[in-house]
Amino acid sequence: MSTSERRDFEERYSACFTDFALKTVTGLLIGSMFGGFFLRGYRRWPMYIGGGLGFGRAYSNCEDSLNTFLLSKEPRPCVIK
């Protein structure tokens, strides 16, 4: 892997952590607002569902991003020394 390819992979990998944080926190906030406004009281389960949905969506996006990068490379045979 060349230096520019390694840098691109590292940028994608670090963007995944940012995506995880933003989508999970956004899901938690939307879930807590849904629980507070629409269910007439503070309920925790909408917050957990929102956080889980945000986390799952971020995982899916990260997996797609890293797989497209890794699968675009030319496969090399594994040599055991």
Topology pattern, helix = H, strand = E: HH
Strand content range:
under 5%
Structural class: mainly alpha
Indicate the overall shape: elongated
Number of helices: 2
Question: What is the strand tally?
Answer: 0
Radius of gyration: 19 Å
Q: Sheet bearing the most strands, described? A: none
User: What oligomeric state do the depicted chains represent?
Assistant: single chain
Helix content: over 70%
What is the straight-line distance between the termini? Answer: 19 Å
- Which stretches of 5+ consecutive residues score pLDDT under 50? none
Rounded average pLDDT: 85
Descriptive report:
Belongs to the MICOS complex subunit Mic10 family. It is found in: Mitochondrion inner membrane. Its main location: mitochondrion. Component of the mitochondrial contact site and cristae organizing system (MICOS) complex. By secondary structure, this protein is mainly α. It has a domain at about 25-70. It has two helices and no strands. The protein has helices at about 5-35, 45-70. The protein is elongated, with a radius of gyration of 19 Å.
What brief labels describe this structure?
0% strand, 77% helix, 81 residues, mainly alpha
